[in-house]
Amino acid sequence: MLEISGLQKVFGRGTVNERVAIKDFSLSLQKGDFVTIIGGNGAGKSTLFNLIAGTYLPDGGKILLDGEDITFQREYLRAQHIGRLFQDPLKGTAPSMTLEENLALAYGRGTKRGFSIGIPKRDAEMFCEKLRALGLGLEDRMKTRMGLLSGGQRQAVTLLMATIVTPKLLLLDEHTAALDPSTAQKVLELTQRIVREHGITTMMITHNIGSSLELGNRTIMMDEGSLILDLKGEERANMTVPKLLEVFREKSRKELDNDRMLLS
Amino acid sequence: MMSLFAFQGAVELGLGYGLLAIGLYISYRIVNVADLTVDGSFTLGAAVSAVLTAAGHPVFGVLAAMVIGSLAGFATAFLQTKMKIQPILAGILTMTALYSVNLRIMGKPNVPLLGADTIFTMMASVVGDKFSKLLTCLLIVLIIMAAVVLFFRTQLGLSIRATGDNEDMVRSSSINSDMTKTIGLCMANAIVALSGAVIAQMQMFADSSMGIGMVVIGLASIIIGEVIFGHSSVLRSVIAVTLGSVIYRIIIAEVLELGMPQGDLKLISSVIVALAISYPVLISHLRMRTLRKGNDRKGEKSRA
């Protein structure tokens, strides 16, 4: 489904600040895989997502999505097949437009935006159903401006928007990190349910080592732009948080310096 | 108090410039770009309309003005999206270039239309002289309002609105944000040029400097309209900014009658816009000051 081979990205090439963000990175995902990605700050996790989504273009390597070479495809074009959520709940929605209008925009993903009615009645009914399924009571607030919803509600709606037209790939970049613990839990459960329902191939960056092992069927660890650990199957089933921290220390010869990772 | 005749004149002008306000509303509020092309595209519309009216084609003049106005918007959008020039500068570049283009179109600094047939004289031959200007302006404004409101309910319209609101989100919904911005600016400048075209035929002349300060006048109308009539939806906003333009013209007519020199108008307009935009900051600043002073006094008391 997703084939990444030999991916390279260097920032500030030829300057004193030159930094290799992604170094010869290769990864192959099967359809329906749910991969969690862990690694310290600056390990290149978000850069990897930016390369896959097309925010940045790589300096080398290849990205194939469902057999199609998207390495240098423009961002808005590949967005037809890639759904993405960010840590910041404000990033995924248009604040001064209504919930309904936001969903209508997302529902048009991959179609040509023409002069047909923005929100036909049957679409509105379908949005209402989908919102009801979130279980947040948002189905009664279709005409509410997005900016008036809480961070958790906005993130849940963004998740719905990213998956309302089933994408080939879903990228979740610490999408629950800015939420309070109980809301974060709720959004995570929603994520799991939606991903499972549609069998969406998913990559999720997380700082929570516990949930990196609980969620999904595969866990990869990144350090200095490279993949240093790839856990799946039985090996992953037998892995525990302390053991994983130990492995990281060995592999990268340094401590995980992130309190958030250790405490959570 | 002004006469009924002067009042009607102010309303007519207000509706004519109301189109300017609608155009600017699209670029400033919906696409979220302070588009300075407007000073140039207003004159561009007037120039095209005047030249064609002088040649005996008033209606075609108005339509051609819109088409050519949209090209001005396209130029600015191209500089902004493809050439990556800052939005304000892109507008200034097009506006400055348009000054030369307008002189070329007119062939001289101004085109008088004395005795020419205009859309207003055509209307007068049907409904009589007294209300011909008012009715013509009203008709054009209503058509444009309906078109704008309906357009922003379409899928493309929604996409353009979202571009002004959150460009990242638009791109990640597989919308080409360069394209939506370009369409928005084309539309905005087409309507601004229409405004110039209508005003030129109403005042029976076009002048190469008639566009100076149009951005500020348009903004003043938008702000007056939104404060008084609200801006909860596109429909409401479009009506509000047009009425804002009418109110602005009535105020101007009133202060002129009170004896203010015509030359001071632009100064007053700028002050109105600056105060209106900075109003929230001024209020919070004043409130903070009162709070701080109150605290100081309490502090002194407790020390004493």
From TrEMBL, chain A:
Extract the Pfam families matched here.
ABC_tran
Q: Where is the ABC transporter domain?
A: 2-249
Asked if the keyword Nucleotide-binding belongs to this entry, the reply reads yes
| GO terms under cellular component | plasma membrane
Q: Which domain of life is it from?
A: Bacteria
Protein's name in the database: ABC transport system ATP-binding protein
What kind of membrane protein is this, topologically?
A: Peripheral membrane protein
For this UniProt record, the keywords arranged alphabetically read as follows:
ATP-binding, Cell membrane, Membrane, Nucleotide-binding, Transport
From TrEMBL, chain B:
* TM regions (residue ranges): 6-26, 33-53, 59-79, 88-107, 131-152, 182-204, 210-229, 234-253, 265-283
Give its localization. Cell membrane
Q: Which Pfam families match?
A: BPD_transp_2
The UniProt entry, under CDD domains, shows:
TM_PBP1_branched-chain-AA_like (cd06574)
Topology relative to the lipid bilayer, per the entry, is: Multi-pass membrane protein
> Is Transmembrane helix included in the keywords of this UniProt record?
yes
GO molecular function annotations of the record: transmembrane transporter activity
This protein's name: ABC transport system permease protein
Record organism: Harryflintia acetispora
